[in-house]
User: Fold this.
Amino acid sequence: MSVLIDIASWLCLAGGGFFCLVGGIGLLRMPDFYTRMHAASVAETLGAGLILLGLLLQAGFTLTGAKLVMIGLLVFFASPTASHALAKAAMSRGLKPLLADAAPLPGGERGVS
Amino acid sequence: MLHAAGVFLALFAFWLLLSGMFTPFLLAAGAGGALAVLAFARRMDVIDREGHPLHLGWRALFSYWPWLIAEIVKSSWDVSRRILHPRLPISPTLVRFKPTQTTPLGLVIHANSITLTPGTISVEVAPGEFLVHALTAEGAAALAGSEMDRRVAALEEAA
Assistant:
């Protein structure tokens, strides 16, 4: 049983690490501020979530587990609020988003809209 | 009064779980701390249905959250595929649409859910109008009258 939990835990940790890495790659590849925020949100939702889940499987029903759940809830409520504040601040300071129907994107591809 | 009791219990439980030590002094200090925060919250007038939405309760926890988590996983996967795709197939779009929620709590839940789902970020939130930045045109087109909108409205109505 504990072997199964260990395997599930490692799958979660590896998956979380993978999505954090993808988020980082996206942060570098995306063309502007707003699209970079989308890449970061992959890391902060699925990446952080899977890592916390993997750690939670290791901790079990202990105080450490309860603390991990609290961290998860904090991320769940605080990260969208912070992202919204960031996007709103950028927009109200006049940072124009790069839009698909206004300009060709890097790589020469145009959006469908 | 029910809300005040709920806030006190939640704060005290928070203290106990973080401390993990159950000596009389630490228990008393935790209760005192929880009471002090409760007093501050009362002075700030933030103990009400909106600041402490107990009434959403089980429905939010067991029906909306699992659905939202599934949505987050699906759209994370979609955004990850686009990030790793050699041609970076994105079509960033700004879209305005009208959410059906009417209460501030419903609007906040809807806007936060949009931001929490990778690929969409709520930029401006006002009653009757959301401005959302989406990574793809398809993502932007799916926002108005979405399943999420319907589910949050149902949550709001049950409240």
